Amino acid sequence: MRMTGNSSTQSTYYILARLVDNLNQDIDSSGPDDYVYATMTNGSYTKTHNMNIARGRISSYDNNPIDTNDILLMQDYLLGDVPLSSLQYALADYNGDGSVNGADLTAMQQQVATSNGQTMSLQECENMIMGNISHKLGNGETFEAFMTGELAIDTNIPAI
Question: What is the pLDDT of residues 96-134, one digit of tens each?
């Protein structure tokens, strides 16, 4: 793994990496879901989590289950209020279709409800989301535009 650019010994970097042998062949990897995320501080690398474990966990860099904080951050992103880092964007693609939109948020909402002992259909989750964000939509902004990700801040994040 090589990083370029200016750095100081006090900087912390969040890194997407894959483990390879000396022939650049994946080690214990079956695809992008097996990429590892790590932090580098003072020249030392610390593995933080695997993509397949932390999918949807965008509010904190750990392996804990997704929670309301992740839902709120995703809503803010889809409303165009906050950008996501490339790592957050990769983790926010909850359904793994290559884009971040309301389908990911709805599935995340359903998972959080399930974790809290509730049974909710995807439609019930979408209705809940609509109730949560409808007052935040600006003039001319629609729930459909929110759900497709059209309102989100375009940061030209490359696909992983």
Answer: 898 999 999 999 999 999 988 999 999 999 999 999 999
Contacts of 43 (CB under 8 A, 6+ apart): 9
Please indicate, yes or no, whether the overall pTM of this predicted structure exceeds 0.85.
Answer: no
- Collapsed DSSP state (helix, strand, coil) of residue 34: helix
> Where are the chain's structural domains?
12-53, 62-148
- Produce one character per residue of 39-65: b if its CB has 16 or more CB atoms within 10 Å, e if not: ebeeeeeeebbebeebbbbbbebeeee
Give a three-class secondary structure readout of 133-154.
HHHHCCCCCCHHHHHHCCCCCC
List, in sequence order, every residue forming a beta bridge with 45; answer none if it has no partner: 40
The set of residues, in sequence order, having a beta carbon less than 8 Å from that of 54 and lying 6+ positions away, is 37, 62, 63, 91
What whole-number distance in Å separates Cα of residue 151 and Cα of residue 76? 10
